Amino acid sequence: MRAAVLHEIGQDKLEVLDDVEAVGFGPGKVKIRVRATGLCHSDVSAMNGVLPQPAPFIPGHEGAGEILDVGDGVTNVKPGDRVLVCWLPACGTCPACKRGQTQLCLAGFMNAGTPNFKRPGGDVFGFAGTGTFTEEVVVDAGCAVPIPDDVPYDIAALIGCGVTTGLGAAINTADVAAGSSVAVIGCGGVGISAIQGARLKGAAQIVAVDPVASRREAALRFGATEAVAPDALGDAKQRITAGEGFDYVFEVVGKSVTARTAYETTRRGGTLCIVGAGALDDFLQLNMFELFFDEKKILPSMYGGGDVLTSYERAIALWRAGRIDLESLITHRVPLAEINEALDQMRSGTALRTCIEI
After folding, report:
1. What is the reported pTM?
2. At CA 297, angle to CA 282 and CA 245, rounded to 5?
3. CB of 147 within 8 A of CB of 319?
4. Residue 249 and residue 205: Cα distance in Å, rounded?
5. Per-residue pLDDT tens for 77-97?
6. Parallel, antiparallel, or unpaired for β 226-228 and 205-209?
7. Is residue 46 within 8 Å of 57, Cβ to Cβ?
């Protein structure tokens, strides 16, 4: 079957090969025919080594498709079912799951170290234990979440990661208050979803911050009240908050320099929500006095900061009701054979989300 493979960490292009086989099928596993998958910035971060991932590997974790086969003991899905891929399934038994913090379950991460593909030359890993830049993938049954028939594969794929992450940051983690002021730094698919979440929660001012003009323009269509380039954020802070700072600031880039800017843009007593996934060796510096004196809340948000199955259902309900716009998040579509074009769109900032149609 065909799949897009990264041979070594640090390479900037994928090779689409037709000699890849999905392996590992057996009890508790399912085989999925992937129909659509989104390109998330985390895929690029894994390719360049920012996020740890063994190679060679197949990127992709934001996917949807149909069940081809199920292993012994699988009862949640059957062949023919339409599903989205959950890259962080909850085991239900670990301490985090028992506390109701299923987004912190580590069971899914354990899968990342087990190859679920192979080629004539050896094993191939799937990113985050999945790997959806392929025609077929074998994953744990818990990674296959049934979706209603009226949800298209491309919409379901987005809900599988970016939409859930951004909406959840605003709704679950930060719990944005009605009438508040918000700034969102980084307006790709996840940042736009955070903007939509803040709008749903009733924020009065939502300032979108991004260096790419097309993304700023898009942010206004999704609910931002103002959109500025990074060098104009200070002026927006002065005009909108009289220099005090925003009630909520979302950092959706994953870099310490933007996190520091976000901290300084948050008012005293306000909330800084860290959504971007950054590198192990990129450190955010804060001094002990400002931590104490400013009393700013720093809230990291992992996969939307809530139970992902509940978050999926909420996103579908909001989409059906017309309360969130998911179709317009997909600004580009490419076939798997043109995956490197999608990577260029991501790196240049021209795409909010590119859907790879398989």
Report:
1. 0.95
2. 95
3. no
4. 12
5. 999 999 999 999 999 999 999
6. parallel
7. yes
